[in-house]
Every structure is written in C-alpha cells, then in structure tokens.
Amino acid sequence: MKDALVIIPTYNERENVEAMVRKVMSLPHPFELLIIDDGSPDGTADIVRHLQLEFPGRLHLETRQGKLGLGTAYIHGFKYALRHGYEYIFEMDCDFSHNPDDLLRLYDACSNEGYDVAIGSRYVQGVNVVNWPMSRVLMSWFASWYVRLVTGMPIHDTTAGFKCYRRKVLETIPLDEIRFIGYAFQIEMKFLSYKYGFKIKEVPIIFTDRTKGTSKMTKGIFKEAVLGVIRMKLSSYFRHFDRY
Ligand SMILES: Nc1nc2c(ncn2[C@@H]2O[C@H](COP(=O)(O)OP(=O)(O)O)[C@@H](O)[C@H]2O)c(=O)[nH]1
Ligand SMILES: [Mg+2]
After folding, report:
1. Residues 6 or more apart in contact with residue 145 via CB below 8 angstroms
2. Does residue 158 surpass a pLDDT of 80?
3. pLDDT at position 235
C-alpha cells in the first residue's frame, strides 16, 4: 500500500506550479503529488513535465483536453489514487491559498488521530482568511452558514477545498454519481462523508488569497451551489447510506 498522494488541479498556474511542487517535495514527509492539468494554454503541464525529471516517482501528471472543471478533475484524481493504492488522499489548490505546511497537520489528523476525513477549515474559530476582499469573505462565510442550515451537517467550513481522505472514504462514496463541478462539489463530498458516517475533523488553518495568477471562480459555479445543495438535501431522503 502506498502512503500519501496530494492532488492539485491546475488551470493556468504557470506562476505558481514550480514553487508549489518544490515546496511539497521539501516537506518532512514523503508526500507524492498528482497534478491534474486541463490543457492550460499557459504551459503549466510543460513545467510539470520538466520537474518530473527531478522528482522521478514522486511527481505525477495527468492531463485532460480543455477546462473541464474542478469537480471532475478531482474525481479523475481520486480514481487514479485508488487504482494506485494510496492510503491518504489530499485535495489542495495550486495558488498557495492553502499553506502546504498544513498538509502535515491534515495527515496527522487521519494517520494518528484516527479521523477518516480532515478538513483544513477557515471558520473553526472566527474567520481565518487573509487578503480576500471583504465582499468575498462575507460571501464565503454566508455560503458556509447557508449550507449548514440546509444540510444540517455539523461542519463550519462547508466549501473548503483543502482536505485529506482515508482511502476507504473514496472507496465508499459513489464517485460516478457526483455531477457538481465547482464549490458544490466540495459541499457534496463533505455531505456524503457525513451521511456515510465517517469521522470528520476540522483542522483550523489560515487561508491566504493568491498573490500570483488569477481566480477561476465564476458566477455559474456559485449558482450551481445555491440550488445544488437544496436538491442534494432533498434527494438524500431517497437514498441509502449503507457501508459495506
Ligand atoms: N484542472 C482544473 N483545475 C482548475 C479548474 N478550475 C480551477 N482549477 C484549479 O483549482 C484551484 C482553485 O482555483 P481558484 O481559481 O484558485 O479558485 P478560487 O480559490 O475559488 O478563486 C487552482 O489550483 C486552479 O488552478 C479546472 O477547470 N480544471
Ligand atoms: Mg484560489
């Protein structure tokens, strides 16, 4: 069984990807890295290919044709991780909003404290967000509150995208049934982890807005989440969440 794989989806992250790869490779735990690049026109994948020569066997790359969305990129990565036998599977952004040093804390929550899912959470104690415009902080905080209200799941940061899953979580969740692509994807993964009864921990982190490159967040992604969570909650009444 292999140990830990960090999945990072990328779209036009030329300014961040090399520093991110080097940072993860330098951590005091032998994380492996899987970049899922959606044919970034800025050549992100070429930079990764070049770095693979330096980190053989630890830096992996999957490329897809065109921008297909964050959710399907992660599903692609999760299947890769299951196929290749990793025990701890992480989600992280490429833009340094998530501090790679915190990978160690998420890893610890799952490998030593026995949690099935560890969430790098901005809203455990107050609001730990640096450099976001106030409008975006408020939107994110209210979004988390709204999702908690609709779904009833006891998680503060419901849209967080910095996570560690134990393998059995991704083996249990029916990955092919997930249709969401943006924030709603992150919400649904948490909702299903909760419904299937997995042990979830929120690890407090500080989230810092990117300083390089641009955000790919769109209005459509936001709209998907607003209606999506209601639909998700309603359909959950007609589903069974048995673990085998
Ligand atoms: N492969 C892939 N990666 C994406 C896509 N959209 C965003 N990303 C990556 O997902 C991460 C988070 O996106 P970002 O634009 O920072 O979203 P924000 O933090 O919500 O503004 C970054 O690493 C992006 O490069 C996509 O459609 N495909
Ligand atoms: Mg970002």
Report:
1. none
2. yes
3. 93
